[in-house]
Amino acid sequence: MIRFVNFQHCYYQQVCDFLIEINKENNYHNNWNWARFEWMYEHPLTNKELLNEMGLWFDDAHLVGVTLFDMFFGEAFVAVLSNYHHLYPELLKYAFDYLKDDRGLGISLHDDNKQEIEEAIKQGFYKEEAEEIDCEINLDKEFAISLPEGFSIETFDAEKNSQEIEWLFWQGFDHGNDRKVFLKQFKESTGTRPHFNPYLCIVIKNKEGDLVASASTWYDIRTDYAYLEPVCVVPSYRKLGLGKTAVYAAINHARELGAKRAIVNSGQEFYQKIGFKKKNHYSFYWKKEERTVNGVTYKLERLLGKGKGGYSYLAKVGDKEYVLKQIHHEPCEYYQFGNKIEAENNDYQRLLDAGIRIPKMIDIDIEKEIIIKEYIEGDVISDLIKQKHSIKEYIPQLKEMAKLAKEKGLNIDYYPTNFVVKNKLLYYIDYECNSYTDEWNLDNWGIKYWNGEKEL
Questions:
Q1: Residue % of the chain over a pLDDT of 90
Q2: pTM assigned to the model
Q3: Which of 231, 250, 396, 399 is the most buried (most CB within 10 A)?
């Protein structure tokens, strides 16, 4: 009898067992294996509060289908054992309903997996250019390793020394070398990687004893493969052969334990240069979140921003791009709202009357509280400020907008996220305006963010 349950930690081992079982059937799900699940589960970026949204399908006590996500909502792994393919449409629908993000849902499917591709297309998924590639290397021989002078190599218990290894990852994956910034975001390991084997975790140290490179493999005796994840080298120690040495040492150890091959979920040139060969190719299929406004269906491509009144998305109808603003009713400590959707409509008319350059309103749905705007593709002033670009040339246009607004008894929201430059013209892309007061005018408030007196 088929039954559905939401994931709980007590099912952790059964998910790992399922991923081992399904990868014995064929290579179609090689990009998602038990080790990738275990790595994701304890990753610092994984939102543990969302884990119970993952879905599991059992036939009596046997786990036969899963819908998992990889650290964040928006990308999912959906799979069933071959004898249960009739369940796949149900799983795919569940994944879209519960694991999507603001963009919708993406899944990667093996190019030869015709059954799942056909079903995904039926449910509205379409192929995009993004891809996944896994590479493989035979472990029929031991790989020679060598170290430059002044470095040492050893195995490492990353679970017991999580801060030290995470600091290496922080640097190695190009997050910077400011340890204070790292420590503010560091989370101690909760020790929920039950299959972690310190013998398969290789680190390289410099002469001061600092970790400068690492490679780990994951191996289960029920499989013939070792999974390589993660591999990193601190930027200042790259091009010394340390990455290659760490990888070879890690897969040598996996070979000693019985692995016949090693796989890595990456097509990077680095792996191919050290002997890995491309094995499987997966294409991404996406189903976008949609909103229907007065009979027109808009596909949401990505979140553009969140304001105190609503969420704005880049939306498409065919190839035409728009901004779709969905009003929200989240509380705001410093602002009191009336009827938001009516206020947006009224403010739009007031801004037009004032002669302020704004995107055209294409449509409005009062009941659904959605506005469709013209999309002004250009540079957001706040981004230019953060990137240290000069915005002085746009200040005269900003002051002209302030003058026009004041003449009509208005203040607009001068915060730099609300302004976009296209073809040297400044647009106020929000529709918010309020009755004029000196306190909130450009000179007394807004200009301070434009000239750097206040940080964004």
A1: 80
A2: 0.72
A3: 250
